[in-house]
Specification:
The complex is a heterodimer of chains A (594) and B (244). Chain A is an all-alpha fold and 594 residues long. Chain A contains 28 helices and 3 strands.
Amino acid sequence: MTRPLPFSLILAAAVAVAGMPAVAQAPQAQAPINSTAGGAAGGRALAPGVQIQLDTPAGAAAPGTVDETALRYYARTGDVARLEAEIARLRAINPQWQPPSDLFSPQAPSQGPSFDETPIWRLMSSGKTAEARAAIAEERRRTPAWQPSDKLLHELDLAEATGRMAAAMGAKRWQEVLDTAAATPEVASCTRLDNLWRVAEAHGQLKQTDQAFDVYRRIVTSCPKAAERRDTIYKAGPFLPPERLRELADLAATSNPAEGEDYAVVRRALQDLDVGRTLSRLGGGQGEQPTADELASAQAAVLERRDAGGALALGWHHQSRKRHEEARQWFSRSNEWQPGDQAVEGLVLALTGLGRRQEALEAGKGWQGRSARVDRALRAARPPAAQPGRGTAGQGAGGWGELERALAQRDYGRCLQIIERMSRGGMDASLAQQRGWCLMELKRPTEAEEAFAQAKALASKAPAADRVRLADSAAYGETLARLQTDDAEGVLQELPNMRLTPERERSIRANTLATQALQAYEEKRYRDTLRLLDARLAFEPEPRGLTIMRGWTHYNTQRIDEALRIFEALDRRFSTEETREAVGVVKRAMYRGG
Amino acid sequence: MKRVPKAISPAVPALLAALLLGGCDTLYREDISGRLPTSWVRLDAEDYPVVLPAERGIVPVAARTRRMGNIFQSYRMVLPNPTTLAGENRLNVDVEYVPTSVFEMLDQPPRAFPIPLYTATTLEAALQTEFPEMETEMAEAPRRGRYGIYDYAVARGDGSATCVLAWQLLDDRKRVLPESIKAIRLEWRYCGQGAEPLALLRPFERLSLTVAPDILPAEPAVVPASAREIPDETPPAAPTRVRR
């Protein structure tokens, strides 16, 4: 006869991250202890959305038959995943054993030896393994008869191995990660899922794809939680080819299903990865291009999620193939979902490609003078006669017309070739400046700075009506180039004496503040980082990369809730490996604090 | 009469400790600036860390430098790029100085450059970053420049441009380096229009380092046989494929 389990763990669906043991404490994430209405022994809210209900067992096993030290510790710290695993382990040792009814009681007496090991467990779980060892030695010196529990020593060994693996991983010593795991096999298990992921990634980094696949397969077939399987698919994404990833997802969705788990999330993860890969291939413009099916699937996903970044990638994909109408539609959608100068730049170029120059000029009006990329696109949209400061040498084939076409196609290498030809009859300020913008696009800012300086010098020879405007734009380009060569300090010193339009000054100030914020973050001056990022917000909306830095700054200053709010908001808008990883790390820190 | 000092209230040290350690970070802040690179500083031409051979006509566009503690000094010299390819041509010079005190020896910043300079994995990643969309190959045999043996890779694109990435670790303190310098890492990234790799490598092989006045050329006698056999004016040995 099968007895119903007297102890049941009811986890709400929100427990997507109850995976790993504590490494560091996050004090403000302490979960309140609640009693549920129905249970005599009560339940305990570990964190929002996580609840354990405990049925009082009819007859608990006699004390001493199993070592409950670790069990009580996990119950006290709210480490759900390890608590479950420990219960399963103790049941395997003694099938008659029942979890004690006072497990979650704050007054639960320590089992076994008279010495309370809790402080040592606490040291260990906050990553202070050396201090834990020292505390054991000190207690043994004071009380020679005392022996630490086997479980404590074993967990300490595993915590030390985990620390070694994490350190090796951080230093990219992939083989050392594998050696550590091989020396302590128990360190990599479902209850220590991070370590299994580390082992798989180390294989992946060492190009041992088969071994990496084996580890990922082990996870998705033996670790029952759907969220963990889903995260494993995401983690495997960079290291496995699409067909093996698909095989892994099939296994994850079907192998050893656990009751109450919804494995549909695994399938969705695979779709996310497929779409992400397609969009990244479109964005990179390198390597094998996506098939029609992949493209259609990506387009559908982008439409469904109203993903502005994805729409941009699709826009450029069509624009580079001269499918200007499709490009126009995607750029319009992107700009509608999340207005930005990149979308407007594309829109201007697509409309120019369709021959709708007037519409192109209208579309770019809002960003004119505020965005270098839109200004550049508008130059390509203007009819040839409207180009300022040009000499007659540039007319016709091989002249401005060809240059505009090169710019509309974003072919900046050809832009340099054309300018080189055009300038044989003499360089003027417009050409020199255009050369500077093309060099910037080719990630050659030092040469671009030279070109802008030349344009500034040549501006004095331009017609009087264009002189100031050309000199100001060249100065602006020169400043942007200097920022790209890490000369923020020099730019800040000269900024008060620069002749810039208010819009351009705002753009430069936003750039310098971003550079300073990054420097502050690297120097662990987190308060300064937030101060500078906040100041930057007055000039421009915050780009995604800086928001991620803002999230990590909150994390590093123990404002875990705020970090989670930022990362989750980013992830909801556009989910990437980076945002998913950030959400996972912060959630784990939050639960560790319970 | 001998004065007996008044006992300090136990609350005072506790209060001080609480202020110092309890999150009152305006009183104490860890200074880690010595372990982080400084901002880049632009260099005048006379302060450039190398002299390039005049006959090759390569005039540097600009150079900048930064330090990490008193141990590492890095220079980035941007060179003209006669192609239409993306990315700057450049020479990187990273100098590792010998610590001048026990404190410096014990508290060194993290390395400014890795040793080994490249592994198969990191080289592949570097080539992909430096020369996207180009065929890259690592040369099987090394070449020899003024300061000894170095390795390199070649990148070729659809057009007529060719690029090279060469790297060299100078750590011969018996002859080449003065006692104040522990090691120097050189990295040469150069793309040329329609040029043979050898022509792109030649300025690198003949440059003179000026970061210290008494850096000497390598002793010809220490050249391994494999490198000595490479005739100076012939194209480099057939490279092995790294990435297609």
